[in-house]
Design brief:
The complex is a heterodimer of chains A (484) and B (338). Chain A contains 17 helices and six strands. Chain A is mostly helical. In chain A, the strands form three sheets. Chain A has a two-stranded antiparallel ribbon with strand order 1-2. In chain A, strands 3-4 form a two-stranded antiparallel sheet. In chain A, a hairpin with a 3-residue loop joins β5 and β6. In chain B, α1 packs antiparallel against α6, α1 crosses α7 and α7 packs antiparallel against α8. The longest helix of chain B is centred in the middle third of the chain and has 32 residues. Chain B starts with a helix and ends in a 12-residue tail after the last helix. Chains A and B meet through α3, α4, β2 and α14 of A and α3, α4, α5 and α12 of B.
């Protein structure tokens, strides 16, 4: 690959956005769980839920700081690397970004201070409210970012005006821009992805405690909460995905064709590829395992009507097929895995062996990698599938880069990003690992063994094992051996 | 006042808000190595712990508002400042993570590493902000299509570095006064000395910058002939600066801090006054400057965003007030501290 500004800027954007996107979905997912934990505490006044929320808040805070630090990079990059794009979309995209700053970021960052540092300073009610605001703020920022990105996929509510500097898109209808054809479908799918991640993340940590025989009571309750969240949203994901695919087939047919490696329309129904190897030169999917007519059925409701293929588009307007295909299929395979995992977990739950099946706990520990990858691959498929356009059918990615920036500068910044991100990623993992290994020792030590109202979580967790584990058992658990 | 002027003004308010708020926590960062023991350093970090993140949001919102209201100015400036802004980003990343990571282990080497990172990142970020302001004062070599025609060396001229130094001394002073408010005992009496020293350094660089600006940048003073009211800002600026030593001397640190806030705000507004009606002055030909009309979004977008700002700003000010009220008073190290 030749060293040009376009390629390098794309590489840098991919690198920085993928690194950034490790953190926001976890913030959204964990935020929802924190709200559930604190609400349960407010209802039952059982201090164990307060302790639980305190522990997860610490994890949340480290994650949030990483999200903020890597997020500012994204805002700067539109201007530094994609100046022509910024000039082109500023009028439309800018209002969404400004709304994100004013409505979401201030809300999140302000109340986060109360959530993290305010346990002893504000009332329980105020703390609960702050947690709710932080969780809402995380959702708000998702809304505006997905709106802006969806406008790039399916532009609406604008016209092209000959500005003295260069032609650009200008807004004609704010709400048509906000509710462009893909924004609602895509927002729902993004949030579902985040909640699945939140569920699997807390299940992973809790399963580790179960395996080590520590914080049993805490771990079982958290695991159960995670399992509910993961199950609900793993069920919702394919449904939302289906609606999204139908929209894509209408608004961005080349993208759907690339997802499916669907090169030639031919006659009759279009199969849905399950697994295969894309050969971009021969323009076909080798070793293709496919269900005949299924894609036609899902898109048109008729198994015999062909779906638009890549041959309907000139070569220079087609997205890269292999990248789109593999990322899209990997996301779907992982989605299926989440469903299977939840199904097996519930079977064990009703057999009362959920926490005694050690293999299942080990699988839970490592399953958290799945949603991280699914969130990434989904976005990669969505963004690569839009190529060669940065704004669909309006502005090509190759025309959108800054004219004042040279390849050497971008190369230098990429190298620095790689070094710095690798470093802080290692530190983040180390810090997270230590926090998790130490566990909620401090938080649980404050819990007194008084009588409290029982919540539905207590009741449900008790069902998961023969002989409910009581709070006194949890306290009698062996003391922590904080190595290192 | 038309919409374009409204947005120019609001950007000024956002930038002043950012400089005042992040100014003290950048200042605390630069003073960090002046704290001797681990305990003192924790006091320093926790004095800004709950606040720095919200403060930085002012920068994010300033950037978003610039993008939305004046996309051409945003695109031109950010692509022109490519490498300095990349370094600024790395500095901001290191600041954020060093605060978050430092407290997570007790090893002395671990803490020392993040202490140095925190100090260096704070200093570098402050310097680069000042250099960017200095370059805006000088003007950038931009052509008729608003594209930057210069190189990295065009951005490192002596005047820009002088403004960078002014920003460093100003935030050092601002940070010292803030720390004085948040500390007690022996540490506080040491910081008392820092307030005087940093004020002296600020006064010297402030006077030098003023003289150099008046002598070498004639277009900066142009508006003061056209709008005599601008002299009020100059007067307020001088009064605010003069009030800092007075308030310190009288033992009223809160007044000193407010005066320091007013000084920063006045300087930002003077900066705006020097630029107006341009966002980026073209050093190649004044006619090619990116003014508030050529670089703006459509009137429709500016008016939609004004609605968003009117709905949003009261909330922003409310949360900011709640947070500062919740975390008022001296630093108290507890279980939830860094």
């Amino acid at each position: 690959m030749e060293l040009d500004v376009v390629f390098l800027s794309r590489l840098q954007f991919a690198l920085t956005i993928m690194f950034h996107y490790i953190f926001p979905p976890l913030a959204i997912g964990l935020g929802a769980l924190l709200v559930i934990m604190e609400t349960t505490y407010m209802r039952t006044r059982d201090p164990r839920y307060r302790a639980m929320a305190k522990f997860w808040t610490k994890i949340f805070a480290v994650n949030f700081a990483m999200g903020v630090a890597t997020g500012i990079v994204m805002e700067f990059q539109f201007g530094t690397n994609w100046a022509v794009y910024s000039r082109y979309v500023g009028d439309v995209f800018g209002s969404a970004l400004a709304a994100e700053g004013i409505f979401a970021f201030f809300l999140e960052s302000g109340f986060l201070a109360v959530v993290v540092f305010g346990w002893d300073k504000v009332s329980d009610r105020m703390h609960w409210f702050s947690t709710l605001m932080v969780a809402l703020g995380a959702v708000f920022s998702a809304i505006w970012i997905v709106v802006a990105n969806s406008w790039q996929q399916t532009p609406a509510g604008f016209h092209i005006v000959n500005n003295p500097i260069m032609p650009r898109a200008e807004i004609t209808d704010f709400w048509a821009m906000v509710f462009n054809p893909s924004s609602v479908d895509r927002l729902v799918h993004v949030l579902i992805g985040a909640y699945i991640l939140g569920g699997f993340f807390v299940m992973s940590v809790s399963a580790y405690y179960v395996l080590k025989g520590r914080h049993i009571d805490f771990a079982r309750k958290t695991f159960f909460l995670g399992l509910i969240l993961a199950t609900v949203f793993s069920l919702a994901a394919p449904i939302s995905g289906h609606f999204q695919a139908v929209t894509v087939s209408q608004t961005q047919p080349a993208k759907l064709a690339a997802f499916e490696g669907h090169y030639r329309a031919g006659t009759g129904g279009t199969p849905m590829s399950i697994v295969g190897v894309v050969d971009e030169t021969a323009e076909k999917v080798k070793y293709n395992v496919a269900v005949p007519g299924l894609l036609s059925l899902l898109v048109h409701g008729d198994a015999d009507v062909p779906v638009t293929a890549l041959d309907a588009f000139p070569r220079e307007d087609r997205p890269p097929v292999a990248l789109s295909y593999y990322n899209y299929h990997l996301m779907i395979a992982l989605g299926m895995y989440f469903l299977l995992f939840c199904l097996i977990a519930w079977i064990h739950y009703f057999r009362k062996t959920l926490f005694t099946a050690r293999w299942l706990m080990w699988v839970s520990v490592f399953s958290v990698v799945g949603p991280f990858i699914a969130n990434q691959t989904g976005w990669v498929a969505a963004e690569v599938g839009r190529q060669p356009w940065i704004v669909y059918n309006l502005l090509r990615t190759s025309d959108a880069v800054s004219k004042a920036v040279q390849a050497e500068q971008v190369l230098a910044s990429i190298i620095l990003f790689i070094v710095i991100y690798a470093l802080i990623f290692l530190v983040w993992i180390t810090v997270l690992n230590r926090k998790i290994k130490t566990g909620p020792v401090e938080e649980m030590s404050e819990v007194d063994a008084g009588e409290h109202k029982r919540s539905w979580i207590d009741a449900a967790t008790a069902l998961a094992a023969h002989g409910a584990v009581s709070m006194t058992d949890a306290q009698a658990a062996p003391p922590e051996t904080g190595k290192e | 006042m038309d919409l374009n002027m409204f947005w120019f003004g609001l950007l000024g308010v956002l930038l002043a808000g950012y400089a005042i708020l992040d100014g003290f926590d950048l200042g605390v960062g630069m003073l960090h190595l002046g704290a001797r023991t681990d305990l003192e350093r924790r006091v320093f970090m926790n004095s800004i712990g709950p606040l720095w993140d919200g403060n930085e949001v002012w920068l994010v919102t300033f950037g978003g508002a610039l993008f939305a209201a004046f996309p051409h100015a945003y695109a031109t400036a950010f692509s022109a400042f490519y490498l300095p802004f990349m370094v600024l980003l790395f500095a901001l990343i290191f600041r954020a993570v060093s605060m978050e990571f430092r407290s997570k282990r007790t090893s002395a080497a671990w803490r020392k590493t993040w202490d140095v990172a925190f100090f260096a990142a704070s200093g570098l970020a402050t310097l680069l902000f000042g250099v960017a302001v200095g370059n805006s004062m000088l003007g950038l070599p931009i052509d008729a299509s608003l594209e930057f025609q210069g190189g990295l060396m065009d951005l490192l001229q002596p005047y820009a570095l002088l403004v960078g130094t002014l920003t460093v001394t100003m935030f050092l002073m601002h940070g010292s006064i803030y720390l004085y408010l948040k500390t007690e005992g022996e540490l506080q009496s040491r910081i008392h000395g820092w307030m005087w020293k940093t004020f002296g350094a600020f006064l010297v660089t402030y006077m030098a910058t003023t003289v150099v600006t008046l002598v070498t940048i004639p277009h900066a003073a142009r508006n003061f002939g056209e709008y005599p009211l601008a002299w009020v800002l100059v007067g307020l600026n001088i009064l605010a600066i003069a009030n800092i030593p007075r308030a310190i001397y009288l033992g009223r640190p809160m007044y000193a801090f407010l005066s320091s806030c007013a000084t920063i705000a006045a300087l930002i507004f003077l900066f705006g006054m020097a630029l107006f009606p341009n966002l980026i002055y073209s050093s190649l030909s004044p006619g090619w400057s990116a003014d508030i009309y050529i670089s703006a979004s459509s009137q429709k977008t500016l008016s939609i965003m004004r609605t968003i700002a009117f709905i949003g700003m009261p909330f922003v000010l409310t949360y900011t007030a709640i947070i500062y009220w919740t975390f008022r008073g001296k630093v108290n190290l507890g279980k939830f501290s860094y």
